[in-house]
Write a structure and sequence with these properties.
Two copies of one chain form a homodimer.
Chain A lengths: L19 H4 L14 H10 L5 E2 L2 H4 L19 E2 L4 H14 L3 E4 L16 E4 L6 E5 L4 E5 L4 H9 L17 H6 L7 H4 L2 H4 E7 L5 E4 L13 H4 L8 E8 L6 E9 L2 H15 L3 E9 L1 E10 L2 H17 L5 E4 L3 H21 L1 E8 L7 H9 L6 E7 L4 E8 L4 H7 L2 H8 L24 H14 L16
Parallel strand pairs in A: 2-4, 3-4
Antiparallel strand pairs in A: 1-2, 5-6, 6-9, 7-8, 7-9, 10-12, 10-13, 11-12, 11-15, 14-16, 15-16
GO molecular function, one term (chains A, B): FAD binding
Cofactor (chains A, B): FAD
Family (chains A, B): Belongs to the FAD-binding oxidoreductase/transferase type 4 family.
């Protein structure tokens, strides 16, 4: 079965050129890499169909710039390959490895750290045409599919059988499950259903030299040797290309309630969260925070019995409103209203982008520091036109700190970096909660990981991709 | 804070010698390994306190045989080291690596595949004395502790704050969290709370050369580089020694219901399971199967509202009993009764052991094949005195197939192996669902993992432990 592209992308008003190249030092092109030639092109055209090899700028452009238009390849010499099978992916990589041709694996290209676009003239390996569902087991809820399936399409597919994908994020209409796994996407449902490290049961991936690693187990329990699939989850396409996926999908909750609550300060926000866990227990499915003029908490429940869920929610609201923890609130009366409340949260990104330039940070912090980072950042920028907005998945201690200015400003940039990373590091937070490292943060990796850990990562990369052809210049800092 | 050993071990009636050595070929002792001498002993006595270095047979015996008494070290030259700190573990491994001394990391020694006892004269590195809780955060539910903490003690500790450990297994009174992680223990709560790959947030581990890898994050979301901690989860102490752990503990459910249901055939068992997921949704916390004269399903719910849970359970029971899927059933009226129902399940192991010898298999299978393996095994053994009993976590497709005989019998053994592994492999099941590979199954690893995958595992082992001193002869087949 083939799934159609839903094709929903947020409209982004930003246009080129952004001064990202100024802000982040681009590493020098690796001199050991070859640049693709007509001979290579002919090989690929013969391996794939000619229409699956793109080299005209008009055709390749969408693949060589990220959706926020912050990262663009520093070369006009671009090629995009669109394989349809694992065997084709394997043949492409084997050939590229032999010819020293660097490769960027790309899914829906919705990442925020420049991980899925070329830095120079790396060949883009797009999984767009690998979008078949292979199987779905209704008893166990286990879905097996190709890497290029779009998340929202998969969610709709399993919904027909009363199940849901264990992850949900703003880019769901465009992002692909292979990319989700390669970047260990988090999102809204992590609080309830856990991370992809737990829900992904199997992966088929192709290594840099074309070796196919088949770990496509469909078993929830499988302790047979090292759990190799974990290596590919979150390694951002630098250790292998994910081609197939087996994933556990939980039963779809029949009933959903959404409430938007206002608090007077951040201490009350924390209390509202703790009480939500107590009162709502097993039906709590999302706790989102946003500071739009005031402190807001968005609470979602989902469960199998509407009356039970509503009774739990009402008891919770009576408690937190009675005690003054929450000063105002609204409960969605139907699905349309519920969607509207969530859109307030999702629209923040769009509204900020419309204002001009946005500096985006995605960090995890202990709950005590969760909001302090916004306050301290605001103080640092008091003399500028910057607006500091903080929102995120508070249930997972994940803060999205967004700073918007009318236009890009070096002074603001220098006030933000490395300040925010250092601040996060000081409290043992994560400098990248869910967006990854990509091209944005390799130099800052040491702020969340120890020297020994980074060295081991580099050894692993060297072992699995000795020539470094897979997604070069990304994730890991260069070895000395 | 120090936690006391709960010291609960099941009484095992089996005594030595078991013919395990006959049944499984023991690999030859690695000739590149040294054997410890008085000089080494003096070094360790100076590094640790003298009472933390055991070499008398009376002292070491408990550490050199597994609890089922199936695996025993083939040497009387034994040493047990009991470090108290990560620094001591690091110094021990650095020294052993330099001196070519092999090491077996050991937690509670409750494993079932011989992974935690020496094969020859490997030095046992016991984490018994590393049993402090480092921190517990009540808002996020995140526990940080040393590897030697006993699972049940940790569960009691977080219970005081309204939380629970995300895993539960029969050996909880003896097994240690470090060993649970090293073996990726599954158990009863996996259905609801997922695997340790999802719930473990951070690990500190020591590599074979003494390098300390600090990935002790306490963040639920942390996408900074490769997720190294995953390597240690399930690698059975062959890649490093886990010294500290950070783990997410879910809120403890206030109310629990347990029902024991009888079905007439295995098709009805499957239906009872599917209906349980539909009716009980988010409060379903365990679905266990056992075939004791008939087909039984044990259902557990746990939730935050007693009335709601009971209403859901009653609706479920009305449905499955009304439709004839379930022909008989009992619901525990209080906690004591609930515990009793679970004990029926736990006692199967003890009852089988009491009969004589038990051949134990722990496999995952697609639900359609879940029970067929028991039926076909029974057919193969019809001419012997063997009893084939099948129970397990049906919610996770995990079968524990147990074959008991009055005494060990080569004919039975040869009828079982490799038959059961081949059968499992044919249906793409897992030849080790939750017990691991250890010393029992390295030769059969290829039945659940492809050649390319095993080769990559061997490369990883070579990279992280070039001399192979960590838990030798276990998990991976020998390289040619």
């Amino acid at each position: 079965m083939m799934l159609q592209t839903a094709g929903r992308r947020m409209k982004i008003t930003q246009t080129f050129p952004w001064p990202i190249v100024r802000a982040y030092s681009t590493p020098a092109r690796n001199p050991s890499f070859a640049s693709w030639t007509d001979e290579h092109k002919a090989y690929f055209q013969q391996l794939l169909k000619p229409e699956c090899v793109l080299t005209n700028t008009d055709d390749t452009e969408a693949y060589t710039v990220d959706w926020l238009k912050k990262y663009k390849a520093n070369s006009s010499h671009q090629m995009v390959l669109k394989p349809k099978t694992t065997e084709q992916v394997s043949a492409i990589l084997k050939y590229c490895n032999e010819c020293n041709l660097p490769v960027v694996p790309q899914g829906g290209n919705t990442g925020l750290v420049g991980g899925s676009v070329p830095v120079y003239d790396e060949i883009v390996l797009s999984t767009n045409l690998m979008n078949s569902v292979i199987s779905f087991d209704e008893v166990s809820g286990i879905l097996v599919c190709e890497a290029g399936c779009i998340l929202e399409n998969l969610d709709n597919h399993v919904a027909k059988h009363g199940h849901m994908m264990p992850l949900d994020l703003g880019a769901k209409g465009t992002c692909q499950i292979g990319g989700n796994i390669a970047t260990n996407a988090g999102g809204l449902r992590l609080l309830r259903y856990g991370s992809l490290h737990g829900t992904v049961l199997g992966i088929e991936a192709v290594l840099a030299d074309g070796t196919v690693i088949d770990c496509l187990s469909t078993m929830r329990k499988d302790n047979t040797g090292y759990d190799l699939k974990q290596l590919f989850i979150g390694s951002e396409g630098t250790l292998g290309v994910v081609t197939k996926v087996s994933i556990f999908t939980p039963p779809r909750s029949l009933f959903k309630n959404v409430a938007l609550l206002a608090c007077e300060d951040f201490v009350s926000v924390q209390k509202a969260f703790v009480e939500a866990k107590k009162h709502l227990g097993e039906v709590l499915s999302a706790v989102e925070f946003m500071d739009r003029h005031s402190y807001y908490v968005l609470i979602e429940t989902s469960g199998s019995n509407s009356d039970h869920d509503m009774e739990k929610l009402n008891e919770y609201l009576e408690d937190v409103m009675g005690s003054g923890v929450v000063v105002d609130g609204t409960v969605a009366q139907d699905e349309a209203q519920a969607r509207k409340l969530f859109l307030i949260r999702e629209d923040i990104t769009v509204a900020l982008s419309a204002r001009g330039y946005v500096y985006k940070y995605d960090i995890s912090l202990p709950i005590e520091q969760y909001y302090k980072v916004a306050e301290e950042t605001r103080e640092r920028l008091v003399s500028t036109d910057a607006k500091v907005v903080c929102y995120g998945h508070i249930g997972d201690c994940n803060v999205h700190l967004n700073v918007s200015t009318l236009e890009y400003d070096d002074q603001v940039f220098n006030a933000l970096e490395p300040f925010i990373f250092e601040w996060t590091s000081k409290y043992r937070g994560s400098i990248s909660a869910e967006h990854g490292i990509g091209r944005h943060k390799p130099e800052y990796l040491y702020m969340s990981k120890s020297g020994n850990a980074i060295k081991l990562m580099q050894q692993m990369k060297k072992m699995m991709d000795p020539k470094g052809i897979l997604n070069p210049y990304k994730v890991l800092p260069e070895t000395e």
